[in-house]
Every structure is written in C-alpha cells, then in structure tokens.
Amino acid sequence: MAKHHYHRGRRHRKKKKQNLVSRRVGISLAVVEGIASIIFMAGLLRLNMLPFSYTAVIGVILLLCFGVLFAGQFFSKKKAVAGKVLSAVLALLLLFGAYYLFRAGGALNEITGGEYKLDNIVVAVMADNKAEDIQDAKDYTFGVQYQMKGEQISQTVEAINDELGSEIETVEYQSLAEQAQALHDGTVDAIIYNEGYTGILAEAFEGYEENTKVIYTHSIKNELENKAADVKVEDETFSVYISGIDVYGAIETNSRSDVNIIAQVNPATHQILLVTTPRDYYVEIPGITQGQKDKLTHAGIYGVDASMATLENLYDMEIDFYARVNFTSLIDIVDALGGVEVESEYAFTTSEDSGLVMDVVQGMNSFNGKQALAFSRERQNVPGGDNQRGKDQQAVITAMIKKMVSPAILTGANGIINSVSGNVETNMSETQIQDLIKQQLADGASWSIKSLAAEGTADSQYCYSYAGQPLYVTQPDAGSVETIKEALKAVENGEMLEGSEATQ
C-alpha cells in the first residue's frame, strides 16, 4: 500500500512539474505573440495609411487575442496545446507582416520628396575607338557646344582637366548636330554632351547608339523647387504631372518624356480629369528655348520642372506635383493590383516593338502587367499612331486608378509601394500620400474619371534642341487646347464634367 501511494505521489509530482513547464512555455509564447503585436502595430503606425478607426479596431483585436491566449495559458491546468500553436502561428504572421509594413514604409520614403534633378554629361567616342576610359583619351580632341546647357559642359571640361592633370584640346561647335557630325567624320576624337540628347541623336543618325560608346560620365545635381509642400491633398484640388520615361539608372536623371499626362484631382467632388498631350507637340519651353519651339518630349532633357512649365504655359494652369515613372515598372504595379480591366477603342494585334505580341479586343480587356505595358506602348498597329497610344496609356492609368480607389489597395498597397521603389519619383511628400489614401479608405466614395487628349496635325519643323535638320512634330490644335483649358478650370471650380466614367 505504501509503495502504491509512493508511486502515485511520484506520478502526481511529475505531472505537476510537466504542467508547470507546459504553462511556462505557453505563457512565453503568448508574451512573444504580444511583443509581435506591438511590433506589428508600430509598423502599421509607421506606414500611416489606415484611418484611425481601422487602426483602433486592429489594435483592439490584437489586444484581445493576447489577453485570451495569455489567460488561457496562465490559468490552464492542462497542456493547452491549441493555445500554444495559435500563439506561435500568430507571432510568426505578425512579425512577417511587420517586416513588410516597415519595408513598405521605407520604400514610400524613397520615392517621395523629390528634391533634385540629375544631369549626366558624357564623353562619347566611336565604338571602334580603342579608348575605354577618360585616361585613354588624354591626347584626344574633344568636340563641345555651349549653346545648350553650356555651364554644365564647362563644368565637365574642368572636371576632366582635373582628372587628367592637364587641359584637353576642344573644338567648339554651334549645335549638337555639328558636334555629332564631326565625331562621325573623324574631325574630333570625342564629343562632350548631355546624355539626355542621346535619343535625339539616335533619330538623326541611324545606328548612333550602336556606333558610339560612352567612356566618361560627369553627374551634376540641381535642386528642384517644391511649390506644393503645403497643399492639403485630402480636401484641396491639386494637379499631378505624370511623366513616363524609359531610362536606365537613377530615376531622377533628366531624359525625354514619352508620356505626358496631367491628372487634375478634386477630392471634394471626387473627380479626376486626365489630360494627355502628344510627345511631339510643337511648343515653347519657357526659360529654355527663348521664343523658339521644340517638341514637348525634349523639355524633359532640361528637367521635370521644364516639362511642367511647358504644360503650365500651354494650358494656362499651375501644376502642383510631378510623378516620374519608368513605365517598365508598370508591370509590377499592375500585377500587385491583381491585374486591370482596360477598355480599348480598337481591336488590334500588338507588334514585337511593344514587347509582347498579343490580340486586343475592342471593348474591355483583362490585362496582367506585361499585357498592360504592351498595350500602352503599341503605336504601329493602331489608328492614329502616337496620338492613339496616348489615349491607350490614359485607359491603362484609368484602370489602375479604379483599382487603387477600391478595396484592392488594402491587399496590394505593400506590393505597389515596393514595386515602384527606384522606378518612381515624386515631389509629393510621404504625409500627403498617406493623407490621400486614408481619406479614400475613410469615405470609400466613388470617383468620376474624364479623359481628354490634345489633338494636332503632323508637320516637320526645326527644333531648339536639334537644329541640324527638321524633325517630325505635331502642330497643336487651338480648339483642342481651349477645350482642355475649360475642362481643367471646371474641375478646379467643382463642376462635374459630362461623359465621366465612375470607378465603382
């Protein structure tokens, strides 16, 4: 009998000890889950995109989960395995979520608050030249021109002299065309020019990019004035210049803008007006062309502020913000949104130049990222060429806006922000973007979107940025420009435009 009591007592003590260990493990897991909840909430507050009511509800739910799981382990006299598993799973999920929240917050910080523009001044030689770097070109003759961005060319010559420890020999030309021709003729060994002009040279000289190579780059930063730091985007009408580029390297590098869209946004009336202006529109670039005219796309060479000033002058308006977008990032953005529904005016098959051969139907199309990019790039197989391409790009942006003002933004926000990091730059502040998203999530209102495209006629004219020969341009249609002016004013004044498309 005594032996029986002894064994029973021993089993009781062992079981009690096991329960104590189990409870301690459970409490520890619950505490870890609680700490993970705190970290997750910190990430959520850092991102600052949810209305306070949403954040408060999430906080209360996490607090209740912690309380239930902790109490369940603290007062349990059994192993409570289910509670332990739940604590561990929740902790992992919350830590995983916190990681992406902090990552998204960092990415948002990277793309906002654009403060400067970047000019890359390069030294180019013929592709078969033996020189591989600037040291190899010490005894070369360099072609220069000081008519465009002359101060930056001078700075680059000085930088080269400092690096070589001696002064280089230069020959001055009056235009970029003369400079490039001298290189091809062998009159000079190398030329110094702004990298932004490479696209123009490629149009004028067949095979220019293939027949030349860059052996030196001098980067020059210039600050951009932010005129819209105090704009309250949640309740004031504002405008955004969307500049679509396709460049390699830093997104802030000055380059031609192939997509030029103004988004006029009235948050009070929940109305958006999208205005597309053809890249070849023949216009004056204020402060640059000195009364001469040039293609709108060339304004981007002188900086995003020059493009904004050009459109402001054309439409008699003020543009608050800009967003420079490498349109190849559109693939990731659309995929993060779960695809988009895009309406096409025409049925056509995209060409190889668009990056993807596919059939487009007249009417509504379901596109993933690659398909949306191909649709927005196609100009060969659509009526109207570049003009229709601009309208198709509007259609893609309209479809993206519809998704972004829908609940899809909740599940796709992290992916969107991370996909645009390094591929988008805007002068809109982090706070302004956060306020705009929070306002949309709070009221959940439907938006009306109206699209207009500036029209014109094909022509051939000399351009400021390249005086060597006439280039293809689009002469603005005065009536079309006036219609856009009136529509922009109407949206600003809170008037509803006819023919707008609802987002919901």
From TrEMBL:
The keyword Transmembrane applies. It comes from the Bacteria. Keywords: Membrane, Transmembrane, Transmembrane helix. Coiled coil: none annotated. The chain crosses the membrane at residues 21-45, 51-71, 83-102. Residues 256-405 form the Cell envelope-related transcriptional attenuator domain. Belongs to the LytR/CpsA/Psr (LCP) family. This is LCP family protein. The lineage of its organism: Bacteria, Bacillati, Bacillota, Clostridia, Lachnospirales.
